[in-house]
Amino acid sequence: MPRTLLAVASIGGHWIQLLRIAKGLERDFEVVYCSTHEKCATMVEGHRFHVVSDFSRWNFWKLPVALVKMVKIIRTERPAAVFSTGAAPGLTALMAAKMCGVRTIWIDSVANVEQLSASGRIARRFVDKVYTQWDSLSDGDRIVYAGSIFS
pTM of the entire structure? Predict the structure, then answer.
């Protein structure tokens, strides 16, 4: 049985970028998806899917509930790694994964051309690997450029 990856992103652009990345991983891993809207499940039919509440810095008081839910999902799915393209719910998933001893990967949005996103700047402090989609944002060590998902 292939190793499991948990892929987490908010609905919208973060979700679309996550799908482009995760589809390529489905050949070698069992990918379980998680997003902030039930309709995202229709885009990953045939895969397990979880819904978490959406929130941002403007309603951050929702973070504790989201964190508890993510810990439950991680304990249920037992992924080898958790990765996210953002935003706050994805960052929360990575926090939960770290608390559970699971490897973590942040892939910053292609939209962030001049600096990492706010969530990316937080993630780089504790995740195992941070990827940027812009070579100019790479530091060659902690923030890695491995190409863009848009060709």
Answer: 0.93
